[in-house]
Specification:
It is built from two helices and five strands. With about 100 residues, it is α+β, with helices and mostly antiparallel strands. A hairpin with a 5-residue loop joins strand 1 and strand 2.
């Protein structure tokens, strides 16, 4: 398991154990992280799993074209560090990474 941290809109800090090889969105959703809605089920179509990578995760794969497009056109207040957790595969490179759940839809 890879431990990652989610900061929810109300300031709640959730440490989540995520299984390697799966999209980060599933671990966040299963842990009840507030704000990870995941409407499209992981298809990079809705940006309802949008987060900002605040620290760590430097070795994670960069966003592919579909993720970058969805962030650009669908995400509320996209930033350079925006990621869709449905497109972010859990690897050891994410150990200790901190994500701020994006607010607004």
């Amino acid at each position: 398991m890879v431990k990652v941290i989610f900061l929810e809109a109300d300031g709640t800090r959730r440490e989540v154990d995520a299984p390697a090889g799966e999209p980060l969105m599933f671990a966040a959703r299963d842990a009840g992280v507030e704000g990870i809605i995941a409407e499209c089920g992981g298809s990079a179509m809705c940006a309802t799993c949008h987060c900002y990578l605040l620290e760590g995760g430097a070795g994670a794969a960069p966003p592919q074209a579909a993720e970058a497009d969805t962030i650009e056109f669908m995400a509320h207040e996209p930033q350079e560090n925006s990621r869709l957790t449905c497109q972010l595969e859990v690897t050891e490179a994410l150990e200790g990474a901190v994500f701020q759940v994006a607010t607004g839809r």
